Amino acid sequence: MSERLRPRDLAILAAESPTTPMHNATVEIFDPGTSGFDHDRLVQLIADRIAFVPRYRQRLQLVPGRLANPAWVDDENFDLGYHVRRSALPRPGSMDQLRELVARIASRPLDRSRPLWECYFVEGLEHGHVALLAKSHQILVDGRETVDIGQVLLDTSADRSTLGHDDDWRPRRTAGPVAAALNAVTDSLERPSTVWMTTRANAEALGRRATASSARVAEVAHALSGRGPVHSTPVHRKLSQQRRFVTVHTELADYRAIREVHGGTVNDVILATLAGGLRGWLMTRAESMAGLKAIKAFVPMSVIDDELEATSLGSQVTGHLVNLPISEPSPVVRLHQVSYDLKAHRDNGRNVSARRLAGIAGFAPTTFHALGSRLAAAELRHGFHLSITNVPGPQFPLYADGARMLESYPVHPLLPDHPLAIGVTSYDGGVFYGITADRDAVPDADTIGQCVLESLEELKDSASDTRPRAPRGRKGAGTRARTQKAGRR
């Protein structure tokens, strides 16, 4: 018997539109060295590991007449070559070129008639590096039945190992429309929960259509009156169909040094860094902030809670609203305010330590980022400005078929009217920011990345007794951040 989509998955599908494709992605940079890692070897690696994520060979089957929710069925025409694609940059490809490619691929929705994922092998990066860009739909990765495919592709050793290759896999035959309808009726008779889920899903669909119609009427009324949206701010804008993507590479040791001086956690320091970065970005924009003194961020966090739905990761994910104090000029005060805001989460006894999360088998950040974005989509009613996921990963190198992973950047989907989303992954001594922005609403997305570096420099300076005081003003800080970034590379 096929598994049917739950109401929350149907809500994600219903929220998807040309301006809000609901998929997560991760871009990872590798040094092949002498491993010979290339596109063909990636195909072989995925063929070997896909047995651990069987849903990656399944597609959605709709039921005529909405007699039941859609079901996951094996794709009888599954073609791994369609999903694992080859791309290249003009050599030597720069990070700017890679970010532009990632933005374009992230802007395109997935084909719902096929398994809802794609993976791109990108050649031609400078220094002989290659990149993997994997994107999966939010309903595919639920942490319960399916983890992200990125979690099962990496090894702790450069030695190649075969784990789960299944040449004998054959798709189960898919029922036609009439049989699908009959199966829906049978499910409803045998499992009362199917009737409840179907009724709830249909009622929610009607409600969403009514809400969407009201929103369109309001939009037309505003247009006719010559007025813009009432709540239009730099962090609340109508979305286009295109994206921008910005990466920021920093060092974990800097955050630990700041934590040692000012207290709190590394997570506090990261969020305070983002608060300062967003403050700097907003100060560069010549527009009214409409009284915006703080940015309300939705921050998913891992907890142990028996009342939440179990996952295969050993913990659950819940959301915490954090006010990022963008009106506060002092970086130290911003850090203490963020730390105080998160103290309740730390004191409730349910939080999961970063060390425990980093020790989960495989590369768990890809799955946790996906779960975080799912949760943010479900909790949109709380009225936050942007979602931020911060996931600690292992602090040792990982390998894909012998190629060492150097960097990992999350690529988050944008929610309706939310032109920014930020993901942060720590891995092997680095802290990697992935900033997704709407191409039209945030044309200066690169400035956010630069301001994040400047904000970190401010915090580092506040924690240092030996370094000379940093020059005040954006010009001096920007020069210093660029110098440090160039030195790391």
UniProtKB/TrEMBL annotation:
Pfam families: WS_DGAT_C, WS_DGAT_cat. It comes from the Bacteria. Transmembrane segments: none annotated. Signal peptide: none annotated. Residues 459-468 have a biased composition (Basic and acidic residues). GO terms for molecular function: diacylglycerol O-acyltransferase activity. Residues 459-489 are annotated as: Disordered. Residues 469-489 have a biased composition (Basic residues). Keywords: Acyltransferase, Glycerol metabolism, Lipid biosynthesis, Lipid metabolism, Transferase. Residues 5-270 form the O-acyltransferase WSD1-like N-terminal domain. Pathway: Glycerolipid metabolism; triacylglycerol biosynthesis; Lipid metabolism. GO terms for cellular component: plasma membrane. It catalyses: an acyl-CoA + a 1,2-diacyl-sn-glycerol = a triacyl-sn-glycerol + CoA. Its EC number is 2.3.1.20. Residues 314-460 form the O-acyltransferase WSD1 C-terminal domain. GO terms for biological process: biological process involved in interaction with host; glycerol metabolic process; response to hypoxia; response to nitric oxide; triglyceride biosynthetic process. Belongs to the long-chain O-acyltransferase family. This is Diacylglycerol O-acyltransferase.
